[in-house]
Amino acid sequence: MKVAIYGRNFQDSFIPYIQELFNILKLYNWSYSVYEPFYTFLKERLVIDNNPKLYSTHEDVRNNADLLISIGGDGTLLETIHIVKDSKIPILGVNTGRLGFLASTHKDEINDVLDKIQQKKYRLQSRSLIELNTNDDLFGENNFALNEVTVHKNDSSSMITIHTYIDDLYLNSYWADGLIVSTPTGSTAYSLSCGGPIMVPGATDFILTPIAPHNLNVRPVVVPDSRKITLKIEGRSKDFLCSMDSRSIAIDSSIELVISKANHSIDIIQTEDQNFLNTIRNKMMWGIDRRN
């Protein structure tokens, strides 16, 4: 098996666990390549092969990897979708961050999870992506995200107005600090913190969640992801902020945002013991009696 390794810096307390990961790759005789900026960090902390294969772009791994391992938190895994793109290379998230809704493999589970992958005792969970199109091609060829597209005020304390259309039919003008258009995966991210509902992976919907709306009767709206969502923004400020996951670009009111479901999806690796319902219950501490 050919494995691509992607990651960010992690705390020294994780070094023994990440070392174990590389030891297991060697034990299974899996070849691997490492994201070049990450290798600079790793080589000073781990004992790994001298001069391993390095990569830096999607083209480097497209036909040269059977699996991508993301080492970090959910934010790190979000970055990997632009390495994988439409290649259908499945992603395994090893969590060295905090919550780990996406990077759900705990440090103590690395050995067990890799063993199950070796035995092919795992499943692929497809996650839909959201796509943004604008008249000036804001995000270039990487105009897709796993969690959400967000518009919000940039350099003013004043609210902005977001005129929102569903398949060219007028829905509402949101007077708010911003608006989140989320995928089911993103329902446990920014949208959740703004009062949006939790959706299970595989749901075929978007969530429109206003950020601090002026009208308190405005609530999140669930829209089928087969529909096109158009946003037109205005406000006292000349500039607004448009974000796709962790990437942000300043825009002005001349830019119309057209949001739709992307033509491709990504696959997340889950073992038999890992599933979304267990993850959400544990992360949200549902059913735990804290009175004792």
Q: Would you kindly provide a written description of the structure presented here, covering whatever features stand out?
A:
The chain folds into two domains: 2-120, 3-Layer(aba) Sandwich (Rossmann fold); 130-263, Probable inorganic polyphosphate/atp-NAD kinase, domain 2 (Tumour Suppressor Smad4, Sandwich). It has seven helices and 17 strands. The protein has helices at residues 15-27, 36-42, 58-61, 74-84, 110-118, 190-193, 276-283, and strands at residues 2-7, 31-35, 53-55, 67-72, 91-95, 122-133, 144-145, 148-153, 160-166, 169-176, 178-182, 205-211, 221-224, 229-235, 240-244, 247-251, 257-271. It has a six-stranded antiparallel β-sheet. A hairpin with a 2-residue loop joins strand 9 and strand 10. The longest helix is centred in the first third of the chain and has 13 residues, at 15-27.
Summarize the helices and strands and which ones pair or pack.
Layout: E1 2-7, H1 15-27, E2 31-35, H2 36-42, E3 53-55, H3 58-61, E4 67-72, H4 74-84, E5 91-95, H5 110-118, E6 122-133, E7 144-145, E8 148-153, E9 160-166, E10 169-176, E11 178-182, H6 190-193, E12 205-211, E13 221-224, E14 229-235, E15 240-244, E16 247-251, E17 257-271, H7 276-283
Parallel strand pairs: 1-2, 1-4, 2-3, 4-5
Antiparallel strand pairs: 6-7, 6-17, 8-11, 8-15, 9-10, 9-14, 11-12, 12-13, 14-17, 15-16
